[in-house]
Amino acid sequence: MGIWHERAARADCDGRALINGERVWAAADARFDNLSPVDGRLLGQVARCDGRDVERAVALARAAFEDGRWAGQAPAARKRVLLRLAELMLAHADELALLETLDMGKPIQYSLSVDVALAANCIRWYGEAIDKLYGEVAPAPADSLALVVREPVGVVAAITPWNYPLLMAAWKIGPALAAGNSVILKPSEKAPLSALRLGELAHAAGLPPGVFHVLPGFGPEAGAALALHMDVDSIGFTGSTRVGKQIQQMAGQSNLKRAWTELGGKSANIVCADCPDLDAAVQAAVGSIFFNQGESCNAPSRLFVERAIYAAFMEKALALVPRYAPADPLEESTVMGALVDGQQQQTVLGYIESGQNEGARLLTGGTAARTDSGGCYVAPTIFDQVRPEMRIAREEIFGPVLSVLCFDDVHEAVRQANATSYGLHAAVWTRELGKAVQLARALRAGTVHINQYDSDDITVPFGGYKQSGNGRDKSLHAFDKYTELKTIWMQIA
Known about the structure:
This protein has helices at residues 3-9, 51-67, 75-91, 93-104, 108-130, 165-178, 193-204, 219-228, 241-253, 278-290, 307-320, 342-357, 391-394, 410-418, 433-442, 479-482; strands at 17-19, 22-24, 31-35, 42-47, 136-137, 144-152, 155-159, 182-186, 212-214, 234-238, 258-262, 268-271, 302-306, 361-364, 368-369, 377-378, 381-384, 401-407, 425-429, 447-450, 483-491. It is α/β, with parallel strands linked by helices.
């Protein structure tokens, strides 16, 4: 038995909510079982929070905001707390990574090197940024002084997904807390454990009680209560487009709270015949769709390859697939783990069946994997002979399924890439700089990669066009979601 199996056997999978700095069960004492997709084991029970818990958390958050125990602190003081939190996250990296892997099935090596590392860096970055964010002096007449200042919006609700539970939580709470808001985090019911532990670490770092709460539970109960609450000022959501639309409707039905949504994607990866490095393009295409089991909103699930290099590209791509065979996520050598639960596994298998029924050619995969493990695994899958109207080319699958389309005219490929309701990421591989810039401008996506895929960091915004959402996570632009701009005009003559 490996070291991570030993740690898993004694892991503390505390599913209680965090309200006012204390771990508590839901007001109604409702709970639900938390099953690991790794092997089906029962990790424990999780508090099933509902409107009563939301009412309590919002009231405490509002009181904390109004008395200024956090919002009233100097930016440098808030910075010190967030930097301590980042250090605590790194000190507890093994614990957080294990909870992440047990809860949603990703390989332990990535939980450590990607999720925990980037989440801690996110908290640190926003802590460092807050005392360097300046206001403005407007060009007013000589007898006036006009100031433009940022103020925290108030009470922020953050609803986060299950595919990157800790990292998506950090993207939301980092700028929201740095700006001085009170925050209520509702993690996905499918993977709540690392977010709950994050809440404990935040209070250990010195965050005052009442400022940060973590409420696990189901969307129609806890999530809807937050979206409809009249005393929540802003809501940040990452998840499906379907739920994002519901949240925006609820925001309008209630107090017109600002609703910021980072939603689905069906990202296009366009490889031209003049690609400067075919091996790198193949590795990026295969590695990026199978990373995190394909459960990434920006996964390049539509691959467009120019006909002149199509045969060579596909030969190389299929040769790489065995590297991504699903394996035990608790083994450090594993590169593809389990899907988050049985429901998601069946959804992915349903799309695979749809692709076959609609006439796409299944080149590899297409089945459940590790069926004797008790977990939720799907073999890495590639289709070619895919037509744009097929479901596997139009809808977000959120699993390890790649749809390959062949093209002769790159402008037609761009047209097909844009012919979707989504607009999150895209990529172009070409040797010509002018061509690359021209195509990048033509692609309707929030991020366009040139001769690579997935390279980015906390300094650049993340978000999409069209039904991939509104607003931006990461970078200084994230402060726009959690602050108000106030004009102060003074007559000085």
